[in-house]
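Aim 2 progress update. The chain analyzed this quarter is reproduced below.
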Amino acid sequence: MAADVHHISLRVSNARRLLKDLVDKFHFSLFTERVEETAKQFAVRSGSAIFVVNERAAGEEGEVIQTGLCNNVSGVTSENTRNCSSGGCHHLYDFSDIDTPVDSVCNVAFEVEDVDSTLERVVRAGGRVLTDIKVTEDEQGSVTHAVVQSPIGNVVHTLLDKKLYKGLFLPGFEATNGASRMQESTVRLSHFDHVTYACPMGSSPPILEWYERCLGLNRFLVNRDESEDQGFIVQGTDVGMRLKAFEYWKCAKEGLNMPGSSSDVKPKVKFVIAEPLPGQGPNQVETFLEQHGGPGIQHIGLHTPDIVSSTRQLRAAHVQLLKPPDTYYSEIGKLSEIHQVGQSLTALKDNGVLLDAEADATDNDHWNNNQRYLMQVFTKPIFDEDTFFLEIIQRCGATGFGAGNITALWRSVQAYLDQREQQEKSKNKSS
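Predicted structure tokens:
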């Protein structure tokens, strides 16, 4: 399977703690690392999903700087190496001069067919280039790469061309003991399904425009009830959010030109923008923006071929999962929906799994066209702050997102945040 998202980078204060959770709880495999005096980077994999965990380092005067080396990595040559200056430092395959005061997901790296033409498109469209094209190599070959700033907070996109590289990951990284014994993950999280951004109110139009102009990604409707202009509105007495989404089509004539592009391959890259609605009061998107210090990646969806089995294993590993509202499984039509696709209500309810019909399916074709539906479960935030979390998703022919699940997610997260707020208030009173 051709790579679309090559890897996603996280920048955290304690890499070992996050690694332990990803390996012990989510059954990722640590397979390569780059550990030097001023750089600690670790890559973990489950299926084709790769997270690079970067430990944020303290500067000489105690300020937080970005993990990475200013000079070439030992044994690795690099052209046009960028020097560190005034708060920014070149990180191997990743550069950002915007840092957050908390743990954060900072980079979605794309593997592309041609870095030169992709970067040229970004420049023509007025995008900001953070690092020009570089060629980094070791004894396994070379990788061409560049980094561009996204329109969303501290998120950057590394563009990688690996056609001339035969190594395990990227030049500068060394295999760990886990690389030789990598096997199918017991939880079987197979690949990245989608990335969701939390953004300020009204910010989605320029974001969508940037991704279309600079990278050739196209808008798609997340739900059949969505307005193309207004997006999909999730609104009620305790709900208020606008969603818009975009993706990369491998049959596109221009854009990222990912390896393996062909007209018969369905899109793989999905991005969702979540923004609050006016007049809704405090909510999860605004909580993210406040605690993260600005817009960024709120959650990442990981696909599994068997969500019930995976969820059971995650719970057994003490992964904290959000509980759907008590009324979710008794909503009108939900029991019938679950039974008609052959799923067990007891299994879904016991594991907190949400099920919803295909976003663009009609009442007539939903059950007759490959039973298009999706199932989802969500973790509680995995950082100290109420910011980033993971979603486990199983797609059964579905390509969009279900309205019922979106609403249930919102209410689940909001209930959790309200509970946390009450606990903090009680804690402050007692102290």
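Confidence is low (pLDDT under 50) at residues 59-90, 260-267, 359-370. The domain at 5-180 is CATH 3.10.180.10 (2,3-Dihydroxybiphenyl 1,2-Dioxygenase; domain 1). These observations will guide the mutagenesis experiments scheduled for the next reporting period.
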